[in-house]
Structures are given as structure tokens and as C-alpha cells.
């Protein structure tokens, strides 16, 4: 069947129970905003122009967050309940006809496969509406599903309005539905506000459809975990853990070795190549891209990092917005930040920090150094004897191309502890700590040298 499928995602609420200044749907689980998980599932079923996200609380920020997906937005200026929220995207989606899938925006575990199964089930039953339901040990807080003898849904009652008997019902409303568009929009327009709260509840539409002689069927899902709605930070933490387990498992099945997977945290958008090994307690966050046959050491934290094939991040290293080239090494206790670039085969050793610096192919900064705002040429070698080496835009330009070409000591200023290797000839000052702070390939400029290792200039 080729009828249009459109999706409405309700994401306008504040989420009072989160006790946050930030709209609930913008909180993250598994490394991605709650609503983004739902949008991605929706986009597996519908074209972006047929997906509408209802925004309200912090509307501009939610829109900005989702800008890359190409979906539409509808504004619910005042949060007057889930039914009212859906009504707000009537104009945006009404023309589409066919089927309308409605989902709350706070159920990030929802899988696209489940939405596909919902549509298949709905078509097979020929109902006006199909509701995804599940049975929970503790259904507190959720709307309860009321059924007739035939097993069809006849109503949904919210926790606050339920009788003692209804509260014992363990089958709950997931907040995810499939509607016939032709019945949804006219029915929705006739919903009245709830007398107690003044809100318009989408759940009241079920009873209205049944009263009009239409059928509403449940689609009962065994795995309740997928439907967990997030209302508090306790639920957020639980769902975060579940999403991360899912991500880690998917990487392992795709050929990544993950040691002690229960300790490893990988965000949703991360890419990892085959035969890479991720050691215990590593955290890989944001939009990291890791190549094949890499090793990500224990307790390392990578955020928006690119690690090319065969590169090694030794334990306890931190990378943010930086790149480690093919076969390069970082750490242990290494740090790359702010667009640091370590070219293929280069080595950044223990207690070395690079900020906005490009370390040329094959170059080595083995230990105890700060390299900031600099370009280091190829095959250069730093040999820290005791005190940290330091560079910054002001005090050093150790680039083979510009400043340190050749094997002579011709730096145009700089650190005490950079020696330069050209054609395999390594020039390392073999002196005591006190000597080395003055005598260096750049010893002709001792003042600059001292400035370079002074604390004030080592922190850029
Ligand atoms: C809702 C359902 C409940 C179901 C549960 C599943 C209603 C009345 N209740 O309850 O039956 O068991 O979800 O998780 O529908 N929203 C708006 N505008 C509003 C209010 C809410 O866009 O005016 C959005 C929220 O941003 C959220 C979603 O709708 O993404 C659900 O709202 P929430 O307050 O979490 O509803 P629940 O109380 O969980
Ligand atoms: Mg909810």
C-alpha cells in the first residue's frame, strides 16, 4: 500500500518533573537529545517533509537542535495538553492524508522497527486507531488501557483520574499511536478540556472514536523497556544506560572488540572501524570517527575526535575536537584539544598537551610538554629532560618548513627542549635539567627560552 505516512512528535512540554531549566526533550540519553532519538526513528518511516515536531517550551532551541533533520515544526505557544499539542500540527500535516503516527517526544528507546510493525498491525486490523501498549510491573504514572471483552481498547484513563480498580490495570499507554488521518483531525477538533486540569488530553480521543462506532486496537509489545517514557532524572539515567548498552552491543556485533563493555560509554553517533579495541572505562562522545585497528586505552575520554586507522590512544588520555593521524600515538596521559592535529606516525607522549597545534608526520613530543598555536614540521623530536617544553604562537615557531629547516640550531625563538631530526639524524641536547633550560638548539635567544617555559606562557 502506498498511502502517505506522516508522523507527529509531541515535544512542546517543559517536563516539570525533570526539575530543570531546560526543556525535557533536550536532555540527553545515550549521547543524543531525547527528541532526536524519536525523530530518527520517525525518519526511517516517513519523508522529512511528512514529519512534524510540535515545539513550545524553548521552541527556538529545540528547532535549532533538530535543524539538520529537515523536519517541519509546529508551534504550541501555550502547553495545554497532548491533544492540544497534536491539534497544533493539524495544518502542517493535514494535507498528507493516509496514516498519522503520533509519538510522545520523551521515549528515546523506541525503535523504527516497532513503528513499522505498528503500521503493519494497523493495516491488518483495519482499525481507526492502533495504540502501542505494554504491561508493566509498576505502571504508576502511565495512562491505563481499558478494554472490552473482545480485547479492543475502549478508553485510556490517566493515573490521576483512575479508580482503584483501574489503577490495578498493568497494561499501559505508550503514548504512541497510529491513526487514520481522515478520522483523527475532525475528532481532535471536538475534544473538550479535562475539567480537573484544563488540558486537552489526546487519550480522550480514544473514547470518542469508540463512541462513534470506530474500532481501536492495542498493539501489545512484550519488551516494555522500549517504551519507557522519561519524566524524571532517575528514568533518564536508566534509559541512558539502556541506550549505551544497545550502542556498545551494536559495535561489538559489527567487529569492534570492547573490553568490559559494561564500563564503556559510547555515544549514539560514534563511528568505529573493524578490529579496533576499546579498553575498559573508555568514553567516546559526540561525533567521534575512529578507524580500523585502533586501540582506545582504558579511561580515555574522546569527544568529537578523529582517530585514523591503526592509531593508538594510550590509557588516561583526553582528546577533544582533534585528530590523531594514521598510526600515530597519544599518551598515556596525553591531551589533544581545540583542533590539534597529529599527523600520521607522530607520537604525543605522556603529559603532553597540544592545543591548536599541528605536529608533523613522524614527529615526537614524548613527554612533559605544552605545544600551543604552533606548527611543528615532520620528523621533529622533542626531548624533555626534566621541565616541560612549551610553545605558543608568540614564543615559538618550530616548523621545519619555516623556522627550523635543516639540522642546524636555527630556531627563530623557542623552547629549550626541541631538537630536530632530519634525515634520521636526531639532535637531542644531552644535558642536565638546569643546563637544558638555557642551552638548546635555540640557545642564542635565552630570554625567549625562559619565557617559553614560564608558567604564564605555558597556559594559552
Ligand atoms: C502521556 C499520556 C499517557 C501515557 C504517557 C506515556 C496523555 C494525556 N497521557 O502522559 O497516557 O501513558 O504519555 O509516556 O497523553 N507535550 C506537549 N504539549 C503539551 C503536553 C505535553 O507537546 O501541552 C508533549 C511533551 O513534551 C512530551 C509528551 O507530550 O514529549 C508527553 O507529555 P508528558 O507530560 O510526558 O505526558 P505523560 O504524563 O507522560
Ligand atoms: Mg511522559
Describe the structure.
The protein has a 16-stranded mixed beta sheet that branches. It has a seven-stranded mixed beta sheet with strand order 5-4-1-6-10-7-11. It has a seven-stranded parallel beta sheet with strand order 14-17-20-23-26-28-30, with no helix packed on it. Helix content is 22%, strand content 27%. It has two domains: 5-232, Spore Coat Polysaccharide Biosynthesis Protein SpsA, Chain A (Alpha-Beta Complex), CATH 3.90.550; 234-458, UDP N-Acetylglucosamine Acyltransferase, domain 1, CATH 2.160.10.10. Mean pLDDT is 85; it is low at 393-460. With 460 residues, it is of the alpha/beta class. The structure holds uridine-diphosphate-N-acetylglucosamine and magnesium ion. Residues 104, 106, 229, 231 line the site of magnesium ion.
Amino acid at each position: 500500500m502506498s498511502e502517505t505516512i506522516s508522523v507527529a512528535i509531541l515535544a512542546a512540554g517543559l517536563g516539570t518533573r525533570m526539575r530543570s531549566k531546560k526543556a525535557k526533550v533536550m536532555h540527553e540519553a545515550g549521547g543524543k537529545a531525547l527528541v532526536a532519538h524519536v525523530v530518527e526513528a520517525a525518519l526511517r518511516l516517513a519523508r522529512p517533509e511528512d514529519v512534524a515536531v510540535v515545539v513550545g517550551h524553548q521552541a527556538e532551541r529545540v528547532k535549532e537542535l533538530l535543524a539538520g533533520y529537515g523536519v517541519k515544526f509546529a508551534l504550541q505557544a501555550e502547553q495545554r495538553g497532548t491533544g492540544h499539542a497534536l491539534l497544533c500540527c493539524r495544518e502542517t500535516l493535514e494535507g498528507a492524508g493516509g496514516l498519522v503516527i503520533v509519538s510522545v517526544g520523551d521515549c528515546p528507546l523506541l525503535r523504527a522497527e516497532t513503528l513499522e510493525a505498528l503500521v503493519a498491525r494497523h493495516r491488518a486490523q483495519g482499525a481507526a486507531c492502533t495504540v502501542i501498549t505494554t504491561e508493566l510491573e509498576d505502571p504508576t504514572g502511565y495512562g491505563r488501557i481499558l478494554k472490552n471483552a473482545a480485547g479492543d481498547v475502549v478508553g485510556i484513563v490517566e493515573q490521576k483520574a483512575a479508580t482503584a480498580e483501574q489503577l490495578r490495570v498493568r497494561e499501559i499507554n505508550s503514548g504512541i499511536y497510529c491513526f487514520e488521518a481522515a478520522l483523527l483531525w475532525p475528532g481532535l477538533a471536538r475534544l473538550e478540556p479535562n475539567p480537573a486540569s484544563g488540558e486537552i488530553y489526546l487519550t480522550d480521543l480514544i473514547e470518542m472514536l469508540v463512541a462513534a462506532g470506530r474500532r481501536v486496537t492495542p498493539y501489545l509489545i512484550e519488551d516494555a523497556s522500549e517504551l519507557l517514557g522519561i519524566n524524571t532524572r532517575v528514568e533518564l539515567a536508566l534509559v541512558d544506560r539502556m541506550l549505551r548498552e544497545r550502542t556498545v552491543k551494536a559495535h561489538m556485533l559489527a567487529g569492534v572488540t570492547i573490553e568490559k563493555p559494561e564500563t564503556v560509554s559510547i555515544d549514539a553517533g560514534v563511528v568505529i572501524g573493524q578490529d579496533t579495541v576499546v579498553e575498559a572505562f573508555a568514553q567516546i562522545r559526540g561525533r567521534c570517527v575512529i578507524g580500523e585497528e585502533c586501540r582506545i586505552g582504558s579511561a580515555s575520554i574522546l569527544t568529537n575526535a578523529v582517530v585514523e586507522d591503526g592509531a593508538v590512544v594510550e590509557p588516561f588520555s583526553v582528546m577533544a575536537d582533534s585528530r590523531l593521524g594514521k598510526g600515530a600515538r597519544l599518551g598515556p596521559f596525553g591531551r589533544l584539544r581545540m583542533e590539534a592535529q597529529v599527523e600520521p606516525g607522530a607520537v604525543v607522549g605522556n603529559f603532553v598537551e597540544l592545543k591548536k597545534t599541528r605536529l608533523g608526520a613522524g614527529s615526537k613530543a614524548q613527554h612533559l610538554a605544552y605545544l600551543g598555536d604552533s606548527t611543528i614540521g615532520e620528523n621533529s623530536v622533542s626531548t624533555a629532560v626534566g621541565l616541560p617544553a612549551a610553545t605558543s604562537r608568540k614564543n615559538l615557531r618550530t616548523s621545519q618548513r619555516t623556522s627550523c629547516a635543516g639540522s642546524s640550531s636555527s630556531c627563530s625563538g623557542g623552547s629549550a627542549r626541541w631538537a630536530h631530526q632530519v634525515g634520521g639524524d636526531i639532535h637531542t641536547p644531552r644535558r642536565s635539567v638546569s643546563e637544558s633550560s638555557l642551552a638548546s638548539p635555540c640557545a642564542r635567544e635565552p630570554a625567549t627560552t625562559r619565557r617559553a617555559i614560564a608558567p604564564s606562557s605555558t597556559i594559552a
